Amino acid sequence: MAHIGEAVARGGRDAWRSPAAHGGHGTPDPLVVVAAVVVQEGRLLVVSKKAAPEVFYLPGGKPDAGEEPLEALARELDEELGVRPVAPEFLAEIASTAALEGVPLQLTVFTAGLSQVPRPAAELAHLRWITGTETDIRLAPAVAEQILPMLRRDGLVPVA
Predict the structure, then answer these.
(1) How far apart are the C-alpha atoms of 94 and 62, rounded to whole Å?
(2) What pairs with residue 143 in β-bridges?
(3) Digit-coded pLDDT (tens) for 65-118
(4) What is the separation of C-alpha 111 from the centre of its chain, rounded to a whole number of angstroms?
(5) DSSP H helical segments within 89-147, as ranges?
(6) SS3 state of residue 95
(7) Other CB atoms within 10 Å distance of the CB of residue 114
(8) Cβ proximity of 55 and 138 under 8 Å
(9) What is the C-alpha to C-alpha distance for residues 99 and 101, in angstroms, rounded to an integer?
């Protein structure tokens, strides 16, 4: 299911630990985020934040200083959805652009089940289960351009 070879080629499992400074080229350091791909019955869980309820992302967030990726993921899923990740597995390291900030995004993605039914809390506005074929939803670039194609290729969500 995971395309680990592709992920390692883009920076590897531990690339989140030390986002590369861009050597004074004027490009900001990437926004480092850990997120979960949760698929049930061919549908992907996405969430939106109160600050931008029209844009949907994978659930997750930024690691705190010194926090390991899985620790950050567990904390974020608890804070945002009131759930724990079940059997998380590394899926990919993705480079994209942050939907709202417009800065480079370094996204460490894990597949996971959930300990119970998720409910939006904290800064979340909405959650939806999508196939990726919906026309009434705006997805973050990483989800639309990289995650959904990867999940389609692996047969986890329907082909558009």
Answers:
(1) 14
(2) none
(3) 999 999 999 999 999 999 999 999 999 999 999 998 899 999 999 999 999 999
(4) 10
(5) 141-142
(6) strand
(7) 18
(8) yes
(9) 6
